[in-house]
Design a protein that fits this description.
The protein is about 45% helix and about 10% strand. By secondary structure, the chain is of the alpha/beta class. The protein has a single domain (about 45-290), classed as P-loop containing nucleotide triphosphate hydrolases (Rossmann fold, 3-Layer(aba) Sandwich). The chain binds adenosine-5'-triphosphate and magnesium ion.
């Protein structure tokens, strides 16, 4: 008769296997942590070189200008599809790798839009060594060196609760509701780290903080400003295809103001319109979602 039941043996052998597996993963984690701490020095000093060598793309001339701009406050007023998200995602990633414990928050008119930035950053990760980051979430990327990038809802209360933020990025800043109130929360968050602020957008209403930052020299004279029209971003200078642009211009012939805003990146309000841009924008809530027709007509 056996001294120990074979089921007990199987049980303990499984336990031992899973214990060994946990130890192995723990050791792997420690190795990644060590590698990440060491690697800080190896990442290029120049974010442009980082894009070329590690992310495998050649930044355009206007992207180079933004990537190398070390100003504390930056606004970039760029045409649609000129490469804002692509370029900024690379820049945020470079910041996080270059400095340990670097904390970034990403804001946009809706959490859905800020998740797009996180998705872009996540899409670059397979190009980098495995030890760089932990498994990303839809709203957060954490790095082994203690840095992190988080997408937050654009509520001043949530932002006030965030300690020690090194960089705040606002995408489509011109379309963020209650942007002035939000900005107050943002600058106090940056105060303890002497951090940086970066906003990109196609121009929206003139009644926005983004407009003031782009134009008001008296109050925002220290803000570094970038402007990119569609002409600066047509192939080979940028990613815009000339063929589709011509079609788009024809389609927007009845709304030339929209063309000027979205493609020329100018603050252009439709002077013949009955309702102004500022009023229309105030009525839009990007956080609302459409109900499917089936719910309405069931
Ligand atoms: N330097 C580059 N090299 C190669 N492709 C690029 C480059 N910059 C941008 N792209 C590509 O161009 C396209 C548009 O880029 P992106 O989405 O970043 O533009 P955007 O200005 O954020 O657009 P939107 O106005 O819709 O928010 C993407 O497919 C992106 O991968
Ligand atoms: Mg974008």
């Amino acid at each position: 008769m056996p001294l120990i039941d074979s089921r007990v043996c199987d049980y303990w052998s499984e336990e031992l296997k899973s214990f060994k597996e946990r130890i192995r993963r723990l050791e792997e984690g420690i190795e990644r942590l060590k590698a990440a701490r060491e690697a800080g020095k190896e990442w290029p000093e120049d974010p442009v070189e980082f894009c070329q060598k590690f992310l495998g793309f050649e930044p355009t001339a206007y992207q180079v200008k933004l990537l190398r701009d070390s100003s504390q406050f930056i606004v970039a007023r760029w045409a649609r599809q000129s490469g804002k998200t692509h370029c900024v995602a690379a820049l945020l990633l470079w910041h996080c790798l270059k400095k340990q414990g670097f904390s970034i928050i990403v804001l946009a008119p809706s959490i859905r839009q800020s998740k797009i930035i996180i998705r872009k950053i996540t899409s670059f990760l397979p190009r980098l060594p495995k030890y760089v980051s932990l498994r990303p979430y839809k709203t957060k990327v954490e790095f082994y060196n203690g840095s992190r990038i988080q997408a937050l809802p654009n509520s001043p209360e949530t932002i006030r609760g965030e300690p020690s933020v090194n960089l705040v990025y606002e995408d489509e800043a011109s379309y963020i509701r209650d942007d002035k109130e939000l900005h107050q929360a943002v600058i106090f968050t940056l105060a303890t780290t002497n951090g940086r602020f970066l906003a990109t957008s196609t121009p929206g209403s003139r009644d926005s903080l983004f407009y003031a930052m782009c134009t008001d020299d008296q109050n925002y004279g220290d803000v570094s400003r970038h402007h990119v029209s569609f002409e600066d971003a047509i192939e080979p200078k940028g990613p815009l295809k000339p063929e589709i642009l011509e079609k788009l211009r024809k389609q927007l012939a009845s709304d030339p103001w929209r063309w000027r805003r979205e493609m020329m990146a100018e603050f252009a309000d439709d002077e013949d319109a009955w309702l102004g841009m500022a009023l229309i924008q105030k009525c839009v809530d990007e956080n609302l979602e459409y109900l499917p027709d089936s719910t309405l007509f069931a």
